[in-house]
Amino acid sequence: MNSSQFKKSELKRLSAEIGFKTDFIESIVNNLDNYYNEWAEEKIDKKTGEVKRYKDGMIKKRVFKAPKRDLKIIQTRIKNRILSKIELPDNVHGGVKKRSNITNAKQHQGNKYQLTTDLQDFYPSISSKQVYTTFLALGYSNYFSSLITKLTTWKNELPQGTPTSPHLANLVFLKTDAVLIEFCNNEGVTYTRYVDDLTFSSQQDFRPHLNTILEIIKVGGFNINYRKTKYEGNQNITGIDVFLHKIDAPQAIIERAEQEKISDSGIKPLTNYVNNIRKTNIRKNKRKLII
Fold first, then answer.
1. Helices 142-152 and 69-81 meet at what angle, rounded to 10?
2. Residue 250 in 3-state DSSP?
3. HEC states along 86-129?
4. What is d(CA 29, CA 256) in angstroms, rounded to the nearest whole number?
5. pTM of the model
6. I need a labelling partner for 113 at 20 to 30 A (CA). Which of 59, 176, 191, 241 fits?
7. Tens of pLDDT along 210-253?
8. pLDDT tens for each residue of 25-73
9. Residues 108, 192: contact at Cβ < 8 Å?
10. Contact predicate 194/172, CB 8 Å
C-alpha cells in the first residue's frame, strides 16, 4: 500500500468511527477557519465582582473559540466514540462519566493538610503538537493522528469551548499525572485532578514536599497559578467545602437552595446539588447522615 492509498484507508477508518462521509471530513479539515466562532470575555473577580486587570491596568480577557454546528457534531462524535473509551486513572475526575467535582472533593475528606492549585490557561497552553503526539502514543498512525488533531485543535491550541477539549487535556496531562501519582503514593499523599484543579492532601504535614510537587507540574510543561495555590486545612475543593468528617456545599449555595425549596418552580437544581453532596456523608454501616 502506497502513501496515497494509506491516507485514503485511514480517512475511511475515521469516517467509519464517527459516522461521517470522507468528503465532508476533508472539507472541514481544509477549511477550519470557517467552522469556528471566536470572541473574548472580560474576566470577573468572583469575590469583588470587579473586572480583573493586569498590573499595567489592562483588562484581563478569556478568549473563547467555539465550533460551529457541523464541526461541533463531529467533535461530539469523536468524544463519544473515541475519547470516552480511553480509560483514565482513578485520580482524574473532570470529564469522566460517574465522576464529578463532588467525587473529586470527597477523596480528601478526613485529611488535615490540603494543597490546592490550578493550571494557568490550561487549554490554550496545550499545543496541536502535544495532541498529535498523544494520539501517536495511543497507537494511532501518523495520518489518523494528524486528522483527528486538526478536527479538535485550532490556531495551534486546544480551543476553549469544544466538546473534545476536556478529554484531550486529560490525555495530554497523563504523563504528568503518572509522575505525580507515583510520588504521592510513595509519600502517603492523596492526589486528584478535576480538569485544571489539582488537589493534594494527607493526614500528615507534607509541606516539605510542596516544592517537589509544583516542580513536577512545571517540568511537565504546565504553568501554575500561584495566586490560587494554598496549603491549609478545611479548604473549598472544586466548589465543595471539605472537613474532617464531612463535605458540604458552600453556605451561599445552601441558602439559595433553601430559597429554592419554597419557590413554585418544579425544577430545583441547587436543592438536588446539595442533596447529592450530602448523600456522600451517609455512613453505610449506620445509614446516618452527618450534618
1. 130
2. coil
3. CCCCCCECCCCCCCCHHHHHHCCCCCCEEEEEEECCCCCCCCHH
4. 46
5. 0.87
6. 176
7. 999 999 999 999 999 998 999 998 899 999 999 989 999 999 99
8. 999 999 999 999 998 888 887 667 788 888 788 888 888 889 999 999 9
9. yes
10. no
Q: Amino acid identity, residue 19?
A: G
Query: Which residue is it, cell 503518572?
Result: 178
Query: Positive or negative CA dihedral for 48, 52, 53, 59?
Result: negative
Give the span between the Cα atoms of 102 and 248, in whole angstroms.
9
Q: Give the other-Cβ count within 10 Å of 190's Cβ.
A: 18
**3-state percent breakdown (helix, strand, coil) of the chain, nearest 5:** 45, 20, 35
Burial of 184 (0-12, 13-18, 19+ CB in 10 A): buried
Instruction: Please give the C-alpha separations between residue 114 and each of 195, 203, 240, 243, 267, in angstroms, as whole numbers.
Output: 18, 9, 13, 11, 35
Q: Residue 43: which residues within 8 A CB-CB, separation 6 or more?
A: 51, 52, 59, 60, 61, 62
Sheet holding 230-232: strands in order across? Answer: 190-194, 197-202, 113-118, 230-232
Strand order across the 247-248 sheet? 236-237, 240-242, 247-248
In the numeric block, the cell 478529554 is attached to: 167
The three cell numbers locating residue 249: 456545599
Answer positive or negative: Cα dihedral of 16, 20, 22, 28: negative
